[in-house]
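Margin note: ligand = NAI.
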Amino acid sequence: MRIAIFGTRKYDRQFLTQANMAYGFDLDFLDVALSPTSARLARGFDVACIFVNDIANRQVLEVLAEGGVGLVALRCAGYNNVDLVAAETLGLAVVRVPAYSPHAVSEFTIGLLLALDRKIHRAWSRVRENNFALDGLVGRNLHGRVAGVVGTGQIGGLVARALRAGFGCEVLASDPVVDEALVAIGVRYVGRDDLLREADIITLHCPLTPETRHLIDGRVLAAARPDLVLVNTSRGALIDSAALIEALKARRLGGVALDVYEQEAGIFFDDLSSEIIDDDILQRLLTFPNVLMTGHQAFLTEEALTAIAETTLESVRAYSAGEPLCHQLRYQATRPGAG
Ligand code: NAI
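Resulting structure:
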Protein backbone atom coordinates (compact mmCIF):
# COMPACT_ATOMS: atom_id res chain seq x y z
CA MET A 1 0.00 0.00 0.00
CA ARG A 2 1.34 3.43 -0.95
CA ILE A 3 0.17 6.16 1.43
CA ALA A 4 0.51 9.91 0.68
CA ILE A 5 0.52 11.72 4.02
CA PHE A 6 -0.50 15.35 3.54
CA GLY A 7 0.30 18.22 5.89
CA THR A 8 3.02 16.24 7.64
CA ARG A 9 4.59 17.68 10.77
CA LYS A 10 7.65 16.30 12.55
CA TYR A 11 5.51 14.48 15.13
CA ASP A 12 3.34 12.84 12.42
CA ARG A 13 6.46 11.48 10.72
CA GLN A 14 7.83 10.15 14.01
CA PHE A 15 4.69 8.38 15.24
CA LEU A 16 3.54 7.05 11.85
CA THR A 17 7.02 5.71 11.07
CA GLN A 18 7.10 3.99 14.45
CA ALA A 19 3.63 2.43 14.04
CA ASN A 20 4.47 1.39 10.47
CA MET A 21 7.14 -0.98 11.74
CA ALA A 22 4.30 -3.45 12.31
CA TYR A 23 2.88 -2.95 8.78
CA GLY A 24 5.64 -2.07 6.33
CA PHE A 25 3.54 0.24 4.14
CA ASP A 26 5.16 2.67 1.73
CA LEU A 27 4.75 6.05 3.50
CA ASP A 28 5.34 9.26 1.57
CA PHE A 29 5.44 12.33 3.82
CA LEU A 30 4.33 15.56 2.14
CA ASP A 31 4.67 18.96 3.83
CA VAL A 32 1.83 20.54 1.85
CA ALA A 33 -1.79 20.38 2.95
CA LEU A 34 -4.27 18.64 0.68
CA SER A 35 -5.92 21.25 -1.54
CA PRO A 36 -7.09 21.62 -5.16
CA THR A 37 -3.51 22.44 -6.17
CA SER A 38 -1.73 19.71 -4.22
CA ALA A 39 -4.21 16.83 -4.81
CA ARG A 40 -2.37 15.69 -7.96
CA LEU A 41 0.61 14.74 -5.76
CA ALA A 42 -1.37 11.70 -4.66
CA ARG A 43 -1.41 10.25 -8.20
CA GLY A 44 -0.33 6.62 -8.07
CA PHE A 45 -0.99 6.28 -4.32
CA ASP A 46 -3.61 3.96 -2.81
CA VAL A 47 -4.33 6.10 0.24
CA ALA A 48 -4.41 9.83 1.02
CA CYS A 49 -3.90 10.48 4.73
CA ILE A 50 -5.12 13.91 5.92
CA PHE A 51 -5.70 16.07 9.04
CA VAL A 52 -8.23 18.63 10.33
CA ASN A 53 -7.49 21.57 8.08
CA ASP A 54 -6.80 19.72 4.80
CA ILE A 55 -9.40 20.36 2.11
CA ALA A 56 -11.22 17.29 0.79
CA ASN A 57 -14.04 18.85 -1.20
CA ARG A 58 -15.54 17.39 -4.39
CA GLN A 59 -12.94 18.97 -6.66
CA VAL A 60 -10.08 17.52 -4.59
CA LEU A 61 -11.69 14.10 -4.21
CA GLU A 62 -12.20 13.88 -7.99
CA VAL A 63 -8.48 14.41 -8.52
CA LEU A 64 -7.65 11.80 -5.87
CA ALA A 65 -10.02 9.23 -7.39
CA GLU A 66 -8.72 9.86 -10.92
CA GLY A 67 -5.17 9.38 -9.66
CA GLY A 68 -5.98 5.94 -8.26
CA VAL A 69 -6.57 6.72 -4.56
CA GLY A 70 -9.23 4.43 -3.05
CA LEU A 71 -9.08 5.41 0.63
CA VAL A 72 -9.01 8.76 2.42
CA ALA A 73 -7.71 8.20 5.96
CA LEU A 74 -8.28 11.06 8.40
CA ARG A 75 -5.76 10.99 11.24
CA CYS A 76 -8.26 12.83 13.48
CA ALA A 77 -11.82 12.52 14.70
CA GLY A 78 -13.38 15.50 12.91
CA TYR A 79 -14.51 15.18 9.31
CA ASN A 80 -16.31 18.46 8.54
CA ASN A 81 -13.59 19.12 5.91
CA VAL A 82 -14.55 16.05 3.83
CA ASP A 83 -17.39 15.99 1.28
CA LEU A 84 -18.75 12.56 2.16
CA VAL A 85 -21.43 12.69 -0.53
CA ALA A 86 -18.77 13.24 -3.20
CA ALA A 87 -16.56 10.53 -1.70
CA GLU A 88 -19.41 8.04 -1.89
CA THR A 89 -20.32 8.86 -5.48
CA LEU A 90 -16.65 8.61 -6.48
CA GLY A 91 -16.30 5.23 -4.74
CA LEU A 92 -13.76 6.53 -2.22
CA ALA A 93 -13.82 5.02 1.26
CA VAL A 94 -13.23 7.46 4.15
CA VAL A 95 -12.04 6.45 7.61
CA ARG A 96 -11.19 8.47 10.72
CA VAL A 97 -9.86 7.96 14.25
CA PRO A 98 -13.00 8.48 16.36
CA ALA A 99 -11.33 8.52 19.79
CA TYR A 100 -7.64 8.58 20.49
CA SER A 101 -7.19 9.99 23.95
CA PRO A 102 -9.88 11.87 25.85
CA HIS A 103 -7.31 12.12 28.67
CA ALA A 104 -4.99 14.18 26.45
CA VAL A 105 -7.67 16.82 25.82
CA SER A 106 -9.24 16.83 29.29
CA GLU A 107 -5.87 17.17 31.04
CA PHE A 108 -4.89 20.03 28.73
CA THR A 109 -8.21 21.73 29.49
CA ILE A 110 -7.51 21.65 33.21
CA GLY A 111 -3.96 22.85 32.52
CA LEU A 112 -5.23 25.84 30.54
CA LEU A 113 -7.78 26.70 33.24
CA LEU A 114 -5.18 26.61 36.00
CA ALA A 115 -2.62 28.57 33.99
CA LEU A 116 -5.18 31.26 33.13
CA ASP A 117 -6.76 31.49 36.56
CA ARG A 118 -3.47 31.56 38.48
CA LYS A 119 -1.68 33.61 35.79
CA ILE A 120 1.10 31.05 35.52
CA HIS A 121 1.95 32.03 31.93
CA ARG A 122 2.37 35.67 32.96
CA ALA A 123 4.42 34.74 36.03
CA TRP A 124 6.81 32.69 33.87
CA SER A 125 7.42 35.63 31.53
CA ARG A 126 8.19 37.85 34.52
CA VAL A 127 10.53 35.41 36.25
CA ARG A 128 12.53 34.97 33.04
CA GLU A 129 13.18 38.73 33.18
CA ASN A 130 14.22 38.48 36.85
CA ASN A 131 10.97 40.18 37.85
CA PHE A 132 9.81 38.39 40.98
CA ALA A 133 7.07 40.88 41.92
CA LEU A 134 3.63 39.37 42.57
CA ASP A 135 1.45 42.42 41.96
CA GLY A 136 -1.15 41.65 39.31
CA LEU A 137 -0.83 37.88 39.72
CA VAL A 138 -3.61 37.38 42.27
CA GLY A 139 -5.71 34.36 41.26
CA ARG A 140 -8.69 32.53 42.68
CA ASN A 141 -9.18 29.06 44.17
CA LEU A 142 -11.04 26.54 42.03
CA HIS A 143 -12.40 24.94 45.17
CA GLY A 144 -15.98 26.00 45.81
CA ARG A 145 -16.51 27.79 42.50
CA VAL A 146 -19.34 26.87 40.14
CA ALA A 147 -18.00 25.20 36.99
CA GLY A 148 -20.29 24.55 34.03
CA VAL A 149 -19.38 21.72 31.64
CA VAL A 150 -21.19 21.84 28.28
CA GLY A 151 -21.06 18.31 26.82
CA THR A 152 -20.17 15.48 29.19
CA GLY A 153 -19.02 12.87 26.65
CA GLN A 154 -15.58 11.29 26.73
CA ILE A 155 -13.63 14.53 27.24
CA GLY A 156 -16.17 16.66 29.11
CA GLY A 157 -16.93 13.72 31.43
CA LEU A 158 -13.27 13.55 32.50
CA VAL A 159 -13.14 17.34 32.97
CA ALA A 160 -16.33 17.30 35.08
CA ARG A 161 -14.89 14.50 37.21
CA ALA A 162 -11.59 16.31 37.75
CA LEU A 163 -13.34 19.56 38.67
CA ARG A 164 -15.80 17.88 41.03
CA ALA A 165 -13.82 15.04 42.62
CA GLY A 166 -10.35 16.58 42.23
CA PHE A 167 -10.83 20.27 42.94
CA GLY A 168 -14.14 20.36 44.84
CA CYS A 169 -15.99 22.66 42.46
CA GLU A 170 -19.75 22.72 42.32
CA VAL A 171 -20.22 21.26 38.83
CA LEU A 172 -23.19 22.00 36.59
CA ALA A 173 -23.52 20.02 33.37
CA SER A 174 -25.51 20.32 30.19
CA ASP A 175 -25.84 17.38 27.78
CA PRO A 176 -28.86 15.67 26.19
CA VAL A 177 -27.40 12.42 27.56
CA VAL A 178 -27.08 12.26 31.36
CA ASP A 179 -24.04 10.39 32.69
CA GLU A 180 -25.28 8.75 35.90
CA ALA A 181 -21.72 8.09 37.10
CA LEU A 182 -21.18 11.87 37.15
CA VAL A 183 -24.50 12.43 38.94
CA ALA A 184 -23.31 9.92 41.56
CA ILE A 185 -20.29 12.11 42.40
CA GLY A 186 -22.44 15.23 42.69
CA VAL A 187 -22.44 16.71 39.17
CA ARG A 188 -25.80 18.45 38.63
CA TYR A 189 -27.41 18.40 35.15
CA VAL A 190 -29.30 21.63 34.40
CA GLY A 191 -30.71 23.36 31.31
CA ARG A 192 -28.09 24.98 29.09
CA ASP A 193 -29.34 28.53 29.71
CA ASP A 194 -29.22 28.00 33.48
CA LEU A 195 -25.67 26.68 33.23
CA LEU A 196 -24.52 29.60 31.08
CA ARG A 197 -26.09 32.09 33.53
CA GLU A 198 -24.98 30.50 36.81
CA ALA A 199 -21.45 29.23 36.20
CA ASP A 200 -18.30 31.09 37.30
CA ILE A 201 -16.31 28.92 34.87
CA ILE A 202 -17.64 27.50 31.59
CA THR A 203 -15.78 24.83 29.67
CA LEU A 204 -17.00 23.64 26.26
CA HIS A 205 -16.87 19.98 25.21
CA CYS A 206 -19.84 19.49 22.88
CA PRO A 207 -19.39 18.92 19.13
CA LEU A 208 -19.81 21.72 16.61
CA THR A 209 -23.19 21.34 14.90
CA PRO A 210 -25.54 23.89 13.34
CA GLU A 211 -27.27 23.99 16.74
CA THR A 212 -24.11 24.62 18.80
CA ARG A 213 -22.48 27.12 16.41
CA HIS A 214 -21.97 30.39 18.32
CA LEU A 215 -23.42 28.79 21.43
CA ILE A 216 -21.49 31.49 23.28
CA ASP A 217 -22.68 34.73 21.68
CA GLY A 218 -23.20 38.32 22.78
CA ARG A 219 -26.49 37.52 24.49
CA VAL A 220 -25.00 34.69 26.55
CA LEU A 221 -21.94 36.76 27.46
CA ALA A 222 -24.15 39.65 28.59
CA ALA A 223 -26.22 37.38 30.85
CA ALA A 224 -23.24 35.45 32.28
CA ARG A 225 -21.77 35.88 35.76
CA PRO A 226 -19.43 38.85 36.10
CA ASP A 227 -15.79 37.74 35.78
CA LEU A 228 -16.77 34.57 33.96
CA VAL A 229 -13.83 32.34 33.00
CA LEU A 230 -14.41 30.67 29.64
CA VAL A 231 -12.41 27.70 28.31
CA ASN A 232 -12.76 26.20 24.83
CA THR A 233 -10.78 23.15 23.75
CA SER A 234 -13.57 21.82 21.51
CA ARG A 235 -14.21 23.76 18.30
CA GLY A 236 -13.59 27.43 17.62
CA ALA A 237 -16.98 28.21 16.12
CA LEU A 238 -18.76 27.34 19.37
CA ILE A 239 -17.86 30.93 20.32
CA ASP A 240 -18.72 34.10 18.41
CA SER A 241 -15.22 35.60 18.50
CA ALA A 242 -16.36 39.14 17.62
CA ALA A 243 -18.84 39.10 20.52
CA LEU A 244 -16.12 37.72 22.77
CA ILE A 245 -13.90 40.70 21.95
CA GLU A 246 -16.73 43.12 22.81
CA ALA A 247 -17.27 41.39 26.18
CA LEU A 248 -13.52 41.48 26.89
CA LYS A 249 -13.35 45.18 25.98
CA ALA A 250 -16.31 45.85 28.28
CA ARG A 251 -14.28 44.16 31.06
CA ARG A 252 -17.08 41.69 31.71
CA LEU A 253 -14.91 38.55 31.54
CA GLY A 254 -12.45 37.25 34.13
CA GLY A 255 -10.47 35.31 31.55
CA VAL A 256 -10.62 33.27 28.37
CA ALA A 257 -8.53 30.22 27.46
CA LEU A 258 -8.77 28.99 23.88
CA ASP A 259 -7.09 26.05 22.18
CA VAL A 260 -9.31 26.45 19.12
CA TYR A 261 -10.41 29.43 17.07
CA GLU A 262 -13.16 29.68 14.50
CA GLN A 263 -10.88 30.90 11.68
CA GLU A 264 -7.90 28.72 12.62
CA ALA A 265 -7.58 26.97 9.22
CA GLY A 266 -4.56 28.28 7.35
CA ILE A 267 -3.08 29.76 10.55
CA PHE A 268 -2.81 27.05 13.19
CA PHE A 269 -0.16 24.30 12.90
CA ASP A 270 2.26 26.62 11.04
CA ASP A 271 5.14 28.85 12.14
CA LEU A 272 3.97 32.31 11.05
CA SER A 273 6.31 34.21 13.39
CA SER A 274 7.87 36.09 10.47
CA GLU A 275 4.59 36.73 8.65
CA ILE A 276 1.97 39.45 8.84
CA ILE A 277 -1.33 37.89 9.85
CA ASP A 278 -4.42 39.43 8.27
CA ASP A 279 -6.91 38.08 10.79
CA ASP A 280 -7.78 41.15 12.90
CA ILE A 281 -9.99 39.22 15.30
CA LEU A 282 -7.23 36.75 16.19
CA GLN A 283 -4.72 39.57 16.55
CA ARG A 284 -7.07 41.53 18.84
CA LEU A 285 -7.73 38.45 20.99
CA LEU A 286 -3.99 38.03 21.50
CA THR A 287 -3.66 41.54 22.97
CA PHE A 288 -5.82 40.98 26.07
CA PRO A 289 -3.89 40.25 29.27
CA ASN A 290 -6.64 37.86 30.41
CA VAL A 291 -6.69 35.74 27.24
CA LEU A 292 -4.54 32.64 26.95
CA MET A 293 -4.36 30.90 23.58
CA THR A 294 -2.74 27.77 22.23
CA GLY A 295 -2.79 26.46 18.65
CA HIS A 296 -5.05 23.36 18.73
CA GLN A 297 -2.61 21.48 20.89
CA ALA A 298 -4.85 19.68 23.36
CA PHE A 299 -4.57 16.34 21.53
CA LEU A 300 -0.78 16.44 21.34
CA THR A 301 0.49 13.73 23.66
CA GLU A 302 2.65 10.71 22.90
CA GLU A 303 -0.25 8.43 23.82
CA ALA A 304 -2.70 10.20 21.51
CA LEU A 305 -0.25 10.35 18.59
CA THR A 306 0.54 6.65 19.02
CA ALA A 307 -3.17 5.79 19.04
CA ILE A 308 -3.81 7.99 15.98
CA ALA A 309 -0.95 6.37 14.02
CA GLU A 310 -1.88 2.81 14.98
CA THR A 311 -5.61 3.22 14.28
CA THR A 312 -4.93 4.90 10.92
CA LEU A 313 -2.56 2.18 9.73
CA GLU A 314 -4.82 -0.59 11.00
CA SER A 315 -7.63 0.91 8.89
CA VAL A 316 -5.30 0.85 5.86
CA ARG A 317 -4.48 -2.82 6.56
CA ALA A 318 -8.19 -3.72 6.78
CA TYR A 319 -8.82 -1.80 3.55
CA SER A 320 -6.00 -3.59 1.72
CA ALA A 321 -7.30 -6.96 2.95
CA GLY A 322 -10.83 -6.11 1.75
CA GLU A 323 -12.17 -6.38 5.32
CA PRO A 324 -15.01 -4.21 6.71
CA LEU A 325 -13.67 -0.84 7.93
CA CYS A 326 -14.44 -0.24 11.63
CA HIS A 327 -14.08 3.53 11.47
CA GLN A 328 -15.59 4.16 8.05
CA LEU A 329 -17.59 7.36 7.57
CA ARG A 330 -20.69 7.16 5.42
CA TYR A 331 -22.83 10.13 4.51
CA GLN A 332 -26.08 8.66 5.94
CA ALA A 333 -24.43 7.72 9.22
CA THR A 334 -22.76 11.04 9.94
CA ARG A 335 -23.29 13.34 12.83
CA PRO A 336 -21.81 16.68 11.83
CA GLY A 337 -18.91 18.31 13.53
CA ALA A 338 -17.31 15.78 15.87
CA GLY A 339 -13.90 17.19 16.70
P1 NAI B 1 -18.12 12.88 22.59
O1 NAI B 1 -18.94 12.58 21.39
O2 NAI B 1 -17.66 11.76 23.46
O3 NAI B 1 -18.91 13.91 23.55
C1 NAI B 1 -19.64 14.98 23.08
C2 NAI B 1 -20.80 15.17 24.05
O4 NAI B 1 -21.49 16.35 23.69
C3 NAI B 1 -21.82 14.03 24.00
O5 NAI B 1 -22.07 13.54 25.31
C4 NAI B 1 -23.06 14.67 23.40
O6 NAI B 1 -24.27 14.11 23.90
C5 NAI B 1 -22.87 16.10 23.86
N1 NAI B 1 -23.65 17.07 23.11
C6 NAI B 1 -24.06 17.02 21.82
N2 NAI B 1 -24.76 18.14 21.52
C7 NAI B 1 -24.81 18.89 22.64
C8 NAI B 1 -25.39 20.14 22.97
N3 NAI B 1 -26.09 20.83 22.07
N4 NAI B 1 -25.23 20.63 24.23
C9 NAI B 1 -24.53 19.92 25.16
N5 NAI B 1 -23.97 18.74 24.90
C10 NAI B 1 -24.09 18.23 23.66
O7 NAI B 1 -16.90 13.74 22.06
P2 NAI B 1 -15.51 13.96 22.78
O8 NAI B 1 -14.55 12.90 22.34
O9 NAI B 1 -15.72 14.20 24.22
O10 NAI B 1 -15.04 15.31 22.08
C11 NAI B 1 -15.68 16.55 22.37
C12 NAI B 1 -15.14 17.61 21.43
O11 NAI B 1 -13.75 17.85 21.69
C13 NAI B 1 -15.15 17.20 19.95
O12 NAI B 1 -16.38 17.51 19.37
C14 NAI B 1 -14.03 18.02 19.37
O13 NAI B 1 -14.59 19.19 18.82
C15 NAI B 1 -13.14 18.36 20.54
N6 NAI B 1 -11.77 17.84 20.39
C16 NAI B 1 -10.75 18.74 20.47
C17 NAI B 1 -9.43 18.33 20.38
C18 NAI B 1 -8.28 19.30 20.50
O14 NAI B 1 -7.13 18.93 20.26
N7 NAI B 1 -8.52 20.53 20.90
C19 NAI B 1 -9.11 16.92 20.12
C20 NAI B 1 -10.26 16.04 20.10
C21 NAI B 1 -11.55 16.51 20.21
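The chain has twelve helices and twelve strands.
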